[in-house]
Design goal:
Largest sheet: 8 strands, mixed
Distance between the termini: 43 Å
Helix content: 25-40%
């Protein structure tokens, strides 16, 4: 009888162990993919791609490499030596290699190049292969760090992680940009946002967060839109104002940048990333931000109720030039362009207690204070020509008592895009879904 104990032990060393210095001079075993194979003057250099980086291996030709090709999965053995010329400062002097699997065809693109120069239409169909390139892979290491920081920071702030339905009976944002679907004998939709559910759970846990997919049936084909993206949401109760929500996000950003600097330094270097300053993020009312950017860059204000993409760019440029800021909170959006759950400003009901966070000229966050009073919420729905009867389960929380609360949603792909200096949000999405793309 054998028993499974959960002790995941392997004799193979990982990237961090190889670089630690603890095994220099010892015989080691390592597994990975052959990233590059380069004969040079009777010596063969083999670059092995591991989970977190690459290690250089070398043999003087005595080892039989006839069955070894790029992208073979292999296990190698040899003596680990220090060599400042090698990536990471170490290399393995090979004495053995076992091919675990071999590719049936050569790679269609040279993923071992430092930088791949592929257009988007070429790259995306080959995404599972292209992501083996170290630079491309590092984008999603940075994304992992941003998501990891979100969980770690909010858990440390006594938030509870939740998981809400993605098949819903009504949209959360209003409008027509929602995917309809058949649900047995009923009408259903793919969720645009976990908004209703995270508000419901404020009444249970007070502070909640979720990282999950959301769906927008917008017929956009731009560099900033996806039809499915990952939203990092949180909602918090017993707030004094929507600025409490902004402060929580600023705290997350400080935590995230510190984590990236500490544990993702190799990926930052590979992508030539300079992290933004998040110690002091300016905030500016919506009308004033539009006026300042319009005056400085001589662009007339065409839409008094929303920010056009070019205005976002100009507002970001203004605050970078005037204050050295990469981020800016634009606050107090007009009621006309905010959803029905946004709380109106009691001092000026034309505006809401809400905000967007712009990062280097692009909106990456929308948030604010929510309506927690039942009659106030019903009245606002009716003003927006909505039928409260269709939102009975949502209004249940308002009927039976809710604290003042607010929250936000961060677009993970947009945040990754701007951190990494990418020019299209699709480069920051593993497998993008847009108007024309359903695979891979």
């Amino acid at each position: 009888m054998e028993f499974v104990t959960g002790a995941c032990q392997s004799g193979d060393l990982g990237y961090e162990a190889l670089l630690s210095g603890d095994y220099v001079g010892q015989r080691v075993s390592v597994h990975g993919a052959v990233h590059a194979l380069r004969p040079l003057g009777g010596v063969v250099f083999l670059t092995l791609r591991l989970r977190r980086g690459t290690v250089q291996c070398v043999t003087n030709g005595q080892l039989d490499l006839s069955g070894v090709a790029e992208e073979c999965a292999v296990r190698v053995t040899g003596t680990l030596r220090q060599d400042e010329r090698a990536p990471g400062g170490v290399e393995i002097d090979l004495d053995g290699i076992t091919v675990l699997s071999a590719p049936a065809e050569p790679m269609p693109v040279p993923v071992n190049k430092y930088k791949l120069k592929l257009n988007l239409d070429t790259e995306l169909p080959l995404r599972p292969l292209v992501l083996r390139n170290l630079q491309k892979r590092s984008v999603f290491r940075i994304q992992e760090g941003l998501c990891r920081a979100f969980r770690e920071y909010l858990t440390g702030q006594e938030f509870t992680e939740i998981h809400t339905p993605k098949i819903v009976h009504a949209g959360a944002e209003g409008g027509s940009n929602i995917f309809r679907m058949e649900y047995f004998n009923s009408r259903a939709f793919l969720t645009q946002s976990p908004q209703f559910y995270k508000q419901m759970m404020v009444g249970v846990y007070e502070r909640v967060f979720e990282v999950g997919p959301v769906f927008r049936a917008e017929k956009h084909n731009t560099t900033r839109h996806l039809n499915e993206y990952t939203s990092m949401d949180f909602e918090m109760g017993y707030i004094d104002s929507y600025r409490d929500v902004m402060e929580m996000e600023a705290g997350y950003l400080r935590y995230a940048m510190a984590l990236l600097q500490k544990e993702y330094a190799a990926d930052l270097e590979r992508l030539h990333i300079t992290l933004p300053d998040v110690d002091n993020i300016p905030s500016c009312p919506f009308d004033e931000a539009k006026r300042l950017a319009s005056a400085k860059y001589s662009r007339p204000i065409r839409d008094p109720y929303d920010l056009e993409p070019e205005e976002e760019v100009n507002i970001g440029r203004y605050f970078k030039e005037e204050y050295g800021a990469d981020f800016v909170f634009v606050t107090d959006y007009p009621v006309k362009k905010r959803p029905f759950y946004a709380m109106d400003d009691p001092e000026n009901p034309k505006y809401t207690l809400s905000f967007d966070l712009l990062f280097r000229g692009m909106e990456v966050t929308t948030g604010g204070q929510r309506i927690h009073d039942y009659q106030m919420q019903v009245d606002k729905m009716r003003r927006k020509h909505m039928d409260p009867a269709e939102f009975e389960s949502y209004l249940m929380i308002h009927k039976h008592g809710m604290p003042p609360h607010g929250g936000l949603g961060i677009g993970l792909e947009r945040l990754t895009m701007k951190i990494c200096g990418l020019d299209n949000v699709r480069y920051a999405c593993l497998f993008p879904r847009d108007l024309s793309r359903l695979e891979p």
